[in-house]
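Need residues for this backbone.
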């Protein structure tokens, strides 16, 4: 039985086949996370699947429709641990309708290169750092090795 609060996040990429850039979102609240970068998303509501929750959150927060790709492989069945009471599962995705805008919960969106130092230089919510690392490995890891 799931005991942790379930959060879903999207790694929105410029392309699912040949990704080069990720859309990062800067949070406005709560105070301890304001100004930090994260994957857009939020809590799974009762009766929703994880994917349904993610589509709803992306519509509310960014005003976009997306195609979801694979789930980013995570260390536990409940996802990536965020804190003692919550875990997040993350799906790769691509915007199919609309232009992302910071409508709710964020004050800035930024497309960042997956390769290079720019992405790691962002002030991510600390719990997101292993997720960002895994995303880089999954997307451009092979390319990096031959850079
Ligand atoms: N969306 C999101 N939340 C994250 C990330 N990393 C991380 O620690 N969190 C935490 C922050 C919050 O405590 C929780 C998600 O809550 P939220 O505030 O985004 O969810 P929500 O929009 O459904 O919340 P609410 O306004 O309905 O209260 O997970 C991340 O990358 N994306």
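Answer:
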């Amino acid at each position: 039985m799931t005991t942790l609060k379930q959060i879903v996040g999207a790694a929105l990429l410029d392309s699912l086949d040949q990704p080069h850039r990720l859309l990062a979102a800067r949070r406005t609240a709560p105070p301890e996370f304001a100004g930090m970068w994260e994957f857009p998303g939020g809590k799974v509501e009762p009766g929703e699947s994880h994917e349904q929750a993610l589509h709803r959150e992306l519509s509310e927060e960014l005003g976009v429709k997306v195609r979801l790709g694979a789930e980013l492989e995570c260390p536990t069945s409940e996802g990536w641990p965020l804190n003692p009471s919550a875990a997040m599962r993350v799906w790769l995705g691509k915007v199919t309708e609309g232009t992302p805008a910071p409508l709710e919960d964020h004050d800035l969106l930024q497309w960042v290169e997956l390769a290079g130092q720019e992405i790691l230089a962002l002030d991510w919510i600390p719990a997101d750092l292993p997720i960002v690392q895994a995303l880089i490995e999954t997307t451009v890891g092979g390319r990096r090795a031959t850079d």
